[in-house]
Amino acid sequence: MSRFTAVAPSNIAFIKYWGTRDEERTLPYNPSISMTLSRCVSRCTVELLPDGAADEVLLAEGSSPAPAPPAFSEAVLRHVRRLAAWAGSGAGFRVAARNSFPTGAGLASSASGFAALTLAVLGALGRQVGPRELSVLARRSGSGSAARSVLGGYVQWPAEGAGEEGYAEALAEAGHWDLRNVVAVVDASPKQVSSRQGHRLAPSSPYFEERLRRLPDRLERVRRAIRERDLEELGPVVEEEAIDLHLIAMSSRPPIFYWRPGTLAVLEAARQLRSEGLRAWATIDAGPNVHLICPPEDEEQVAARVGALPAVESVIRDGVGEGPVESSEHLF
Ligand code: PMV
User: Fold this and answer.
1) Looking at ligand 1, which atom is closest to the CA of residue 108?
2) Rounded CA gap, 54 and 82, in Å?
3) Residue of 109, 193, 195 to test ligand 1 pocket, by largest number of atoms within 8 Å of CB
4) Of the candidates 52, 141, 154, 316, which lies 20 to 30 Å from 180 by C-alpha distance?
5) Mean pLDDT lowest for which of 17-26, 50-59, 97-106?
6) What would the mean pLDDT of 124-143 be, rounded to a whole number?
């Protein structure tokens, strides 16, 4: 039977998606802008089974694939069934997945995971779609950030003019600007509150509207910084934006605290590094781990300095990436 493997990258948002305006269709209150990564990836193999055969979901984290936990399988199969219905297919599916980085710890594993799953299901079904439709299908998984992970480089979702279709579009290719992302992992365990829950609660924060008011200017500054490869312009906006997301999370009702003591230690280290002339600005997704955005020439020192902090468990060094690819290395 037909088997297809896709490898899709994670991404780190410079302007965050935080708050879902339409949960049924996964449409956000505001456009977000991210950098697609290169080394933090999800690999997904999908095999078509005969019509009506029982679906199967495997996690390929050890030496051989093993049945996935029920919550993971359910989320995967919901999206598989959605894609099968879209394609008019009655086939069964065997799915295996593996991440190159910690899952569910605010490192956007749902973005890369659902982007890879979307590509692998379409590949196994022999269906080809354009980038806009691919982005929309990935978003239908319920992970809005997956809509950005089907593209490489610097990506905005929803794109200018996408309207209710809500697809993502690249603002610049990866080759346009070589930026690095040093991730200081202070806690690799799965987060307690999902981003889905965070999106639901976001409008209950008294600061939610205020951030939306500031966003048009922030988005424009980030787009300009990317266009002009201006890290001194980009860095402060990105850091301010990340703090705002967490301000909103912490003041939602009920509140959500993603930060750990190590998060603050790394934020302080970023300020210290800048005072010494290094260029590194922090951003944090829905988790405790801190992503330091820096230029290639400062990456080594930034990684060494944050890696030496007692609160930092490990450091992942990544950078801007080209987007998803098909692979002949299947998981089963
Ligand atoms: O795509 P989701 O539903 O996992 O939400 C992503 C939320 C953030 O990572 C915090 C922000 C973003 O834009 O990636």
Assistant:
1) 9
2) 16
3) 195
4) 141
5) 97-106
6) 97
